[in-house]
Amino acid sequence: MGKRILIVNVNWIGDVIFSTPFIRAVREAYPDAYIACLLHPRCKDILESNPRLDEIIFYDEEGSHKSLVGKWRLIKQLKARKFDTAFLLHRSFTKALITLLAGIKERIGYPNKNRGWVLTKAVEEPDEELHKVEYFLNIAKSAGIKPLNTSYEYFVDNGARKYISSFLKDVGVSDEDRIILLCPGGNWGPKRWAAEKFAKLGEILGERFKAKIILAASAKDAGLAVQINELMGGKAIVAAGKTDLKQLGALLERSELVVANDTGPMHMASALGVKTIALFGPTSPRITGPYGTGAWRIIWKNERCETPCYDVTCIDNICMDAITVEDVVREAERLLG
Fold first, then answer.
1. What is the pLDDT of residue 1?
2. Which of 79, 85, 267, 279 could disulfide-link 106, Cβ–Cβ 3.0 to 4.6 Å?
3. pTM of the model
4. Nearest-angstrom CA–CA distance, 22 and 152
5. What is residue 318's predicted lDDT score, i.e. its pLDDT?
6. Distances in Å between the alpha carbon of 224 and those of 121, 193, 206, 238, 287?
């Protein structure tokens, strides 16, 4: 029987995208192995079309696997797969313990959360600050895997492309129209650029580049997209809440330019090679910025606050407010010519 590998992945969309160079590196090192990924259900659309994986196994720690009985069912499921190696990208003690109880003989990861005794190979924490892509790849390198490429990957399926083609047709966007996609959402408030600035930017870019402006966001941020469109006098198209992640990927792929806060969609756009302007404030692009090859620009003008900063109660948002509409327009002109 060939090598059987389990990659214990992280829990958030952007972080899972950071893991794609790791997944590619493992597949390139073991082309004939059976490779599965243990993943939170919220991130399934990020990896479901990834051809480098043979299987995705969901760990619903807030739902079906929350109880001890649920965890034991998962352990039995993993044990039945007869994995011989587990790479632990997630820092959780519980997930490391699950791989031990599942009988996986080789368990490789960082020894944080007092879990060093659970691992068979504890990877030394790096001394310097690393981008999360490199932080994950450090685990691969410790196992003798040499990554050939450090760029993100995201795979769009034809079903998502058909949905977006139909959606765009329904809202009056032709195949010849240029699309500029604005992504104003974010999983917490201080990471978000002001709605008024997104509205002003949309008006300027739409006029200057003769482009259709589309506002994309999750369903929970649909109200924000509607507010921005109202500030624009209804000149934009609101796609917020009308796509799942796979369909959003197809919409990103169709766009000529994407402007986004530090969010999953920004990293998806970068992975797809779309021209992207990433707006950073309380988080550090040195750790979570676009990575690898691609036509992207970062705007980060945080001069007063320590980063990364996770103060979700911050109300002045000075780090994001320092970014002007003119800053973004300038970068758009450089990217689009």
1. 64
2. 85
3. 0.90
4. 9
5. 86
6. 46, 11, 19, 10, 27
Q: How far apart are CA 151 and CA 133, in angstroms?
A: 9
Which of 280, 265, 262, 185 has its CA nearest to residue 223? 185
Q: Please provide the size of the chain in residues.
A: 337
Query: What pLDDT, on a 0 to 100 scale, did the predictor assign at position 309?
Result: 75
Residue of 56, 57, 89 lying closest to 74 (CA atoms) = 57
Domain 159-336 class in CATH = alpha beta
Amino acid at the residue 191? K
Q: Which token pair is 288?
A: 């979570």
Are 286 and 131 contacting, i.e. CB atoms less than 8 angstroms apart? yes
Domain ranges (residues) in the chain: 4-142, 159-336
- Superfamily for the 4-142 domain: Glycogen Phosphorylase B; (3.40.50.2000)
Burial 195-229 (b: 16+ CB within 10 A, else e): eebbbbbbbbbbeebebbbbbbbbeebbebbbbbb
The Cα 237–Cα 234 span in angstroms is 8
Which pLDDT does position 308 carry in this prediction?
75
Edge-first strand listing for the sheet containing 276-280: 237-238, 211-215, 178-183, 257-261, 276-280, 296-300
The per-residue pLDDT for 122 is: 95
- Give the separation between CA 38 and CA 196, rounded to whole angstroms: 40
Kindly list the distances between the CA atom of residue 8 and the CA atoms of 56, 87, 122, in Å, as whole numbers in the listed order.
10, 6, 15
**How many other C-beta atoms are found inside a 10 Å radius of the C-beta of residue 119?**
19
Q: What is the mean pLDDT of each run of 10 residues along the chain (337 residues)?
A: 92 93 97 97 94 96 92 96 97 95 97 91 92 96 94 94 97 96 87 95 97 95 95 96 95 97 93 95 90 88 75 78 96 94
Helix (H) / strand (E) element for 192: namely none
User: CB within 8 A of 321, min separation 6: which ones?
Assistant: 194
Distance CA 144, CA 81 (A): 24
